[in-house]
Amino acid sequence: MKIKYNLIHKDKNSNARRGKIETNYGVVDTPMFMPVGTQATVKTLSPEEVKDCGSGIILANTYHLWLQPGEDIVDKAGGLHKFMNYDGPILTDSGGFQVFSLAKPKDITEEGVKFKNHLNGDSLFLTPEKSIEIQNKLDSDIAMSFDECVGFPHTRKYVEDSVERTLRWAKRGKDVFNNPRQSLFGIVQGAEFEDLRKHCVEELVKMDFDGYSIGGTAVGEPKELQYKQVEYSCKYLPDDKVRYLMGVGDPDDLVENIERGVDIFDCVSPTRLARHGHFYTRYGKLNVKNARFTEDFTPLEDSCDCYACKNYTRAYIHHLIKSEEVFGQRLLSIHNIRFLIKMMEEIRIAIENDKFLEYKEDFLKKYKGKKDE
Amino acid sequence: MKIKYNLIHKDKNSNARRGKIETNYGVVDTPMFMPVGTQATVKTLSPEEVKDCGSGIILANTYHLWLQPGEDIVDKAGGLHKFMNYDGPILTDSGGFQVFSLAKPKDITEEGVKFKNHLNGDSLFLTPEKSIEIQNKLDSDIAMSFDECVGFPHTRKYVEDSVERTLRWAKRGKDVFNNPRQSLFGIVQGAEFEDLRKHCVEELVKMDFDGYSIGGTAVGEPKELQYKQVEYSCKYLPDDKVRYLMGVGDPDDLVENIERGVDIFDCVSPTRLARHGHFYTRYGKLNVKNARFTEDFTPLEDSCDCYACKNYTRAYIHHLIKSEEVFGQRLLSIHNIRFLIKMMEEIRIAIENDKFLEYKEDFLKKYKGKKDE
Q1: Is the peptide bond before A153 cis (omega within 30 degrees of 0)?
Q2: Distance to chain B for A97, nearest Cα, Å
Q3: Is residue B371 over pLDDT 70?
């Protein structure tokens, strides 16, 4: 079945939304943060550990799975859920973000994008139809249209042309889409130009997608500009469809963008930060490799209910990360994912009580009061 | 308390023994294989996963923990069990094996061994007293005497002198040992010379250790020689104390040495093999990276009851290992550890029924019938 978004409550003092998404694999409460399982695994973690963090939905990357193991293998396994033994909802991206970071400008044509395979240098070509075909076979619950992800900075002229191409590509993808178990999202582009974002939303809505993503963010733009882009997109998006902001996951960005009306987010940061020893706390990000944690026999964060905080100390995790032991990365990954998802749980309650702005103010005051390590 | 070994049954047709070790952290059935947690973590796994494999006891390395985090940190944490959140029995080695692989012959003196820290090149000195002091602080359940691990090949003259030094070192270590919760093992050396092994056992038994280890194996000697060394040690060891063969863990070596009277084993192989894609099966060792597993949607081993085999396919693990995803290493580590421990469970039943030799014959016929990949 297609997903169904139910808007439960709108915060009285902001555009923050409390909702639910019904999927083939259960209900997802929103706002929600999605951990990233690039290669059909959330790095270092088991599906059970991801679920224990309260994760309602995860993301997998079409580009990576296309190259390895290939969509036909996943299809033969019975789809991504069976292949990776994950019985919760899965969203796939279109591959566009990776492809555009690998392609040269001259290789972006109306037909599609030519680029080199990052594993072996082979020449590859991705089109809107191919992206949908791969995702149909991966059998994720939510697929993304193939869009042009414009970098930063850029000219207005380039963005104007690119938005039109993104719209033509969205149409081409929708025309070949043929998996009845899957939902398809359109992607709003238009950079920081409100009229282009508005135009893009209007044209996508005419095509009637099952949900909408906000693209062109997390490409190196200043944070204030990111928030503007989100504002200029949400303002025109329909209330009855879910809104997904791609690639954004810093705690401060989560609250800023939820205020503007975003429902779901994804980002590699909780697991990537973990690999470098970083962990989130209410009072900012810390690095467990710091010498002051050598003899700190308290949890990563006193108030946290995650497996790492309930069972291990900063001193032990400091030792593991210094010793390059994978279990240290696992513990930090669990903590960081749980941190973001617990934020979402608290935010959902705040929205239900029309207190989102108070939550945001309180959160940012603590979180930004301290310099990141 | 000190450990207590209870010999439950001796196989009628071999020297295989079925026993139990009572420890501060529960009872360990023997024969038993111990997974290795070098740096206070069994590589890539949580303590719960190690326990789910049926592991009765694990090993941690004194040398590594001495360097990082240091025994004083572990002591301040409340000992190794609390530090790593493991509530099962833990055995520590003496550090000798690592130290002798790092030291030059001229740096081995009566007082101790000079060698270079493998992390930063600093000059270090380890003595029998220091090894015991470190282990006392680590607060493992079973500590090892500091012995000279003689390499292969060697001269009889060298081994003769070395056995005497090992005996003097065992005495020195025992004299300073002062942790009442901990048991201390003596280590039998003497290479392939039966009279030297006999002499070493007799002198150690006079000192009355809580158990005995068989050392000087797994140093590059031929397998037949290893079995001889074990035979020449077990023959003289007392029935009422546990016997531990250090660093041995190949499935064929396990059955050969259990036949000769060994109770417990440790080896890094199940987790090390996992990192290279290898996994055990009844019909030999396979490499999951092999192209024929790309579309193999069966478990690593049909008859296996481990978490990996119950939930994932060879095709998925092939994909994970090819993609260098840690979760693939985790799954193979779990399978390999479970494989060895399940062997131990079956062997215990075989011994109880005086059918160990039948088990061994059947096992080796299948296991060696196929070339390792």
Answers
A1: yes
A2: 20
A3: no
Pick from A68, A85, A319: CB nearest B69 = A319
Provide the 10 A C-beta neighbour count for residue B119: 11
Q: How far apart are the C-alpha atoms of B280 and B289, rounded to whole Å?
A: 14
Q: By three-state DSSP, how is residue B58 classified?
A: strand
Give the residue carrying structure tokens 């095509």. A207
User: Closest Cα to residue A167, out of A191, A182, A186?
Assistant: A186
Nearest CA among B321, B334, B326 for reference residue B294: B321
CA distance B299 to chain A (A): 12
Q: Which of B206, B197, B143 is nearest to B173 (CA)?
A: B143
Q: Which DSSP category does A108 fall into?
A: B
The whole-angstrom separation of Cα B262 and Cα B256 is 9
Query: What is d(CA B298, CA B240) in angstroms, rounded to the nearest whole number?
Result: 45
Identify the segments of chain A with pLDDT beneath 70: 370-373
Per-residue pLDDT at A105: 85
d(CA B317, CA B323): 10
Nearest to residue A334, comparing CAs of A243, A265, A270, A249?
A: A270
pLDDT at B175 over 70: yes
Indicate if the alpha-carbon torsion angle A107, A113, A117, A123 is positive or negative. Answer: negative
Give the CA-trace dihedral at A55, A61, A67, A71, to 10 degrees.
70
What ipTM did this prediction achieve?
Answer: 0.97
- In this structure, how many other beta carbons lie within 10 angstroms of the beta carbon of residue A347? 26
pLDDT digits (tens, 9 = 90+) for A303-328: 999 999 999 999 999 999 999 999 99
Partner-chain contact B327 A46, CB within 8 Å: yes
| Interface A-B: count of C-beta contacts within 8 A | 99
Q: Give A-chain residues touching B68 at CB under 8 angstroms.
A: 319, 322-323
DSSP code per residue over A323-338: TT-HHHHHHHHHHHHH
Task: Tell me the per-residue pLDDT of B149-159, one tens digit each, with 9 for 90 and over.
Answer: 898 999 999 99
Express each pLDDT in B97-127 by its tens digit: 888 888 888 999 999 999 999 889 999 999 9
Is residue A6 within a helix (H) or strand (E), and if so which, with residue range? strand A4-10
Chain B residue numbers with beta carbons less than 8 Å from the beta carbon of A319 are 39-40, 68-69, 73, 83
